[in-house]
């Protein structure tokens, strides 16, 4: 059976990236950016690997998508990310003028919603797509991390 290109389909791809982050010992957040049903950026958190607090999945995806498109604006693009963007990432997404953000799990403490961060007026945001799968992976990661310390 062929899966339709919908939010669930693309969030599954973002979850694959989150699983890669998990394997590397990174907080398991994955992100992809899509334009016209085509994935143009695929990445995950790299903060530990790059020793860089700004190397969140969203930041990596913004850079990759802008390079692919040959410009800094991500109009007509959708970001799929497994955790609600933080204030830093939401700010970068604001400046990129991305058209749509779809996230899986809500970040009740550091998410852009909890922080009251503004997105670009033309950006729409949807949450909760494959929320349980993303939340389970994050919980598994932090349980493992606590048990190692």
Structural summary, described in words:
- Strand 3, helix 4 and strand 4 form a beta-alpha-beta unit.
- Helix 1 runs parallel beside helix 6.
- A 5-stranded mixed β-sheet has the order 2-1-3-4-5.
- The N and C termini lie far apart (44 Å).
- By secondary structure, it is of the alpha/beta class.
Keywords:
alpha/beta; five-stranded mixed beta sheet; 19% strand
Radius of gyration: 14 Å
Helix content: 40-55%
Outline the biggest β-sheet.
5 strands, mixed
Note the overall shape.
globular
| Count of helical stretches | 6
- Class from helix and strand fractions: alpha/beta
Low-confidence runs: none
How would you briefly describe this protein structure?
This protein is α/β, with parallel strands linked by helices.
Question: Which helices and strands appear, and what pairs or packs with what?
Answer:
Elements: H1 7-23, E1 30-35, E2 38-44, H2 47-50, H3 57-69, E3 77-83, H4 87-96, E4 100-105, H5 112-115, E5 124-126, H6 131-148
Parallel strand pairs: 3-4, 4-5
Antiparallel strand pairs: 1-2, 1-3
Helix pairs in contact: 1-6
């Amino acid at each position: 059976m062929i899966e339709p290109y919908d939010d669930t389909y693309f969030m599954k791809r973002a979850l694959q990236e989150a699983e890669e982050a998990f394997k590397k010992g990174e907080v398991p957040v994955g992100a992809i950016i899509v334009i016209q049903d085509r994935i143009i950026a695929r990445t995950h958190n790299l903060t530990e690997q790059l020793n860089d607090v700004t190397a969140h999945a969203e930041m990596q995806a913004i850079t990759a998508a802008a390079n692919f498109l040959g410009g800094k604006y991500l109009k007509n693009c959708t970001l799929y990310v497994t955790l609600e963007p933080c204030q830093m990432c939401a700010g970068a997404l604001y400046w990129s003028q991305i058209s749509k953000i779809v996230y899986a799990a809500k970040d009740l403490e550091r998410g852009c919603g909890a922080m009251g961060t503004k997105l670009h007026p033309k950006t729409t945001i949807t949450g909760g797509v494959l929320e349980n799968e993303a939340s389970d992976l994050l919980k598994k990661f932090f349980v493992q991390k606590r048990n190692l310390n």
